[in-house]
Design a protein that fits this description.
With 129 residues, the protein is an alpha/beta fold. It has a single domain (2-125), classed as Conserved hypothetical protein from pyrococcus furiosus pfu- 392566-001, ParB domain (Alpha-Beta Complex). It has 3 helices and 7 strands, in the order E-E-H-E-E-H-E-E-H-E. The protein has helices at 16-21, 63-74, 106-115; strands at residues 2-4, 11-13, 41-43, 47-48, 82-86, 100-104, 119-125. The protein has a 5-stranded mixed β-sheet with strand order 3-7-5-6-4, covered by helices on one side. Helix 2 (63-74) crosses helix 3. It is globular, with a radius of gyration of 15 Å. The model has no long low-confidence stretch (mean pLDDT 88).
């Protein structure tokens, strides 16, 4: 299955058999973000899409990790937050559209988009943290 990024003119793919194995066909989200112990959530469209160049199982994903996260969504399990870096906002004409960069939690980021969530439970740290 193919999924569009919320604010970036590109798509990514999750293998159909992984999607089915996770129980995602017919999945209905219960909230705007997955359940997490984090108290902070950030809009997915404010987060820079992380691009994977390493060849993993498929499409830059580790199959077991991605399927496990999607199964957690289906079960409404508590899942750890994603670690984000706060990007400096440039006052020039570059038009940097994103406020955050994923430091840890790439699979949770992509799975959240695929599941239709609008927000991502996260922890943040600044450039100098």
């Amino acid at each position: 299955m193919r999924f569009a990024f919320p604010r970036f003119p590109a798509e990514f793919e999750i293998a159909d058999d992984w999607w089915i194995e996770a129980g995602m066909p017919g999945f209905t989200r219960q909230g705007s973000a997955y359940r997490s112990p984090a108290t902070d959530v950030f809009a997915l469209d404010d987060i820079e899409p992380p691009f994977r160049t390493r060849p993993l199982d498929r499409g830059g994903f580790v199959r077991d990790r991605l399927v496990s996260i999607l199964k957690g969504f289906v079960a409404d399990a508590e899942i750890p937050p994603v670690d984000l870096l706060i990007l400096p906002q440039l006052a020039d004409i570059s038009g940097q559209p994103f406020k955050y960069r994923v430091l840890g939690g790439v699979h949770r980021f992509y799975a959240s988009i695929a599941a239709g969530f609008e927000f991502l439970p996260s922890t943040t740290r600044g450039i100098c943290s």
